[in-house]
Amino acid sequence: MLTDESRRRDFPCLEGMTYLNTAAEGIPPRAVIDALGQYAQDKLLGMDGRKLHEAQWQAVREQAARAFGLRPDEIGICSCSSEAYNLAAMALKLREDDEVVINDLDFPAGATPWLQPTCPATVRVWRSRDGALRVEDLVPLLGARTRLVSTSLVSFYNGFKIPVPSVVDAVRKHSPALLAVDVTQALGRIPLDSTGVDLIVSSTHKWILASHGGGLVGVPAARAESWTVPAGGWFNLQNAFEADRFERTVTKPGAASFCVGMPNYPAVYAVAAGLAYVQSVGIQAIDAHTRPLVLACLEELGKRPVELLTPNDPDGIAGILAFRHPDAERIHRELHAENVHIMSHAGRLRIAIHGYNTMADVERVLKVL
After folding, report:
1. Cβ-count burial of 6 within 10 angstroms (0-12 exposed, 13-18 middle, 19+ buried)?
2. Which residue spans within 91-247 are E strands per DSSP?
3. Phi, psi of 42, deg, nearest 5
4. For the whole model, what pTM was predicted?
5. With b meaning 16 or more CB within 10 Å and e meaning fewer, what string describes 286-295?
């Protein structure tokens, strides 16, 4: 990552492979694989391993807090972003006269909890234009009844990056709504600014190069009351083992309420190692290294007979480029035959560029295309 030497040392599996599909699955460095092995060794200690597990859990909270711009006690850990959003839906306790705003570039995890028949709120869709979500199109959807605006920082679909400060300003000016932002396609890839965001959610198996089974949740202390999940469990309860435990439940407020049961400690070890790795390299350094690759790839894609889905705006992109082609499946097969890995789905091809990628990777995928 960032140098030939560190890339060979930390990512030996990338030798001879062009991997441009981190938006689907990140390639873990050796440190993450070692961490999973360390979990296994600690688990062999039985109950004596619990303190070691808990130390890793606390390390994740500290590292995620650093990335989110929060305090460790404002970080919760669950199993995935989908679980986080369903728990968030429980916390909001929406009513029939409430409204929720989602958008058409978002991943299902952040949009579908509000579309379930059991959700009484009215859903309004912030629709993209030319692949971009424009704040002026959000404003008419906001009002006194808006309880939540849910969006991804970077779209999984085409890589568009929302202007967070402008979105925060619009939500605050035109509604009393809470703002939830999914940073799955940004965490570990670009610097984050979560100022004014009320709920931050991320998966763990993509750009932070960790494993499946983790979900990071950030809740600023000022919003703890709004995001306290009324769920059964024990890890999320203050009185789970007290004398009155069969008479009442007292839920921990805010982020802690999203940790309803025994943590997925194998994932916790992997996430601790993955976050530590990308933070040791430096998110600013990763972004500085990859941005020229992304812009060069975007420029060359613009010269080809494809339907570019990613807005041609350097300020509105992070690490994902997407385009359509009528022969997408054949192209994907031929790329894969050349050991070039990108994503293909329903005619949409997606290239994702991370810190372990090089200009040679970009040139190779363009050559095959």
Report:
1. middle
2. 99-103, 122-126, 146-152, 178-182, 199-203, 215-218
3. -70, -35
4. 0.95
5. bbebbbebbe
Estimate the crossing angle of helix 265-281 against helix 30-43, to 10 degrees.
150
Which of 246, 279, 312 is the C-terminal boundary of a domain?
279
Residues 91 and 277: their CA atoms lie apart, in Å, by 33
Largest CA distance in the chain: 70
Rg of the chain, C-alpha, whole Å: 21
Q: Domain range holding 322?
A: 4-20+282-368
pLDDT (tens digit per residue) in 225-260: 999 999 999 999 999 999 999 999 999 999 999 999
Q: Note whether residue 196 is domain-resident.
A: yes
Calpha distance 312→333 (Å, rounded): 27
279, 296, 322 - which closes a domain: 279
96-132 core/surface letters (b: 16 or more CB in 10 A; e: else): eebbbbbbebbbebbbbbbeeeebebeebebebeebb
Query: What does the buried/exposed string (b/e) look like for 29-58 if buried means 16 or more CB atoms within 10 Å of the residue's CB?
Result: bebbeebbebbeebeeeeeebeebbeebbe
Residues in the chain: 369
